[in-house]
Amino acid sequence: MTNQTPGFFIAFEGGDGAGKSTQAARLAEALESRGLKVLRTREPGGTPVGEKLRSLVLDHGNGHIDAHTEALIFAASRAAHASQVIRPALERGEIVLTDRYIDSSVAYQGAGRDLGTDAVRSINEWATSGLQPDLTVLLDVDPGVGRRRRTAGDAAEDRLESEADEFHTRIRNAFLELAALHPDAYLVLPAHLPVTDLAAQILARVDGLLTSAGRGAA
Ligand code: TYD
Fold first, then answer.
1. Which of 51, 54, 104, 117 to mutate to test the pocket of ligand 1 (most atoms within 8 A of CB)?
2. Tens of pLDDT along 140-149?
3. 167 lines ligand 1 (CB under 6 A)
4. Structural domains in the chain?
5. Which among 37, 75, 169, 185 could bridge 127 via Cys, Cβ 3.0 to 4.6 Å?
6. What is the band of 1 on the pLDDT scale with cuts at 50, 70, 90?
């Protein structure tokens, strides 16, 4: 395992409307039904300070937020999340599933906002003391499809979601590039597959990794 704790750390990543939270919930259910202890969490958020930072950076009406400030708010939220929630759960030997992690900042702020992927990665590695997922599940979604999914039923888009499709295309490409750099650490799946097919493929990969880490089903 790469995180040097007895736990196992999985991040779900992808564009808005990719279905990450549905898949994280499915995986949590499947693992818990085998007697494994699972912690589900999300970014930005996951701690009281993180939830406040979340509304600061996502809600409309907080005035102009420049790209550097935005990146630092996400990184601050993540620092709290990593040290107060994720690392303690991993130390207890739990399986942690997070809806978004460092790759979201690298893709949205590094590529989407043009701050540079290396700079954004390095502030986030500092913020988390280098805590990396054992596996990242990337649900690859076409930006147009993602927008239709998230606005179904008249749901309002947050500050980032309401950016143009071109912004979301840069993000999509950045996620795919990150996955291509370290294929062993990623599972990339097309988000348009049926929910049950995605869930089965994710569970199969996680099962394989847990078994090789000596953490197979109870
Ligand atoms: P998310 O929680 O996935 O949205 P939802 O409200 O649908 O649950 O993410 C909120 C938004 O924040 C999303 O558009 C992606 C963006 N984001 C970043 O730009 N950088 C980051 O580091 C993170 C974690 C999220």
1. 104
2. 999 999 899 8
3. no
4. 8-212 (3.40.50.300)
5. 75
6. very low
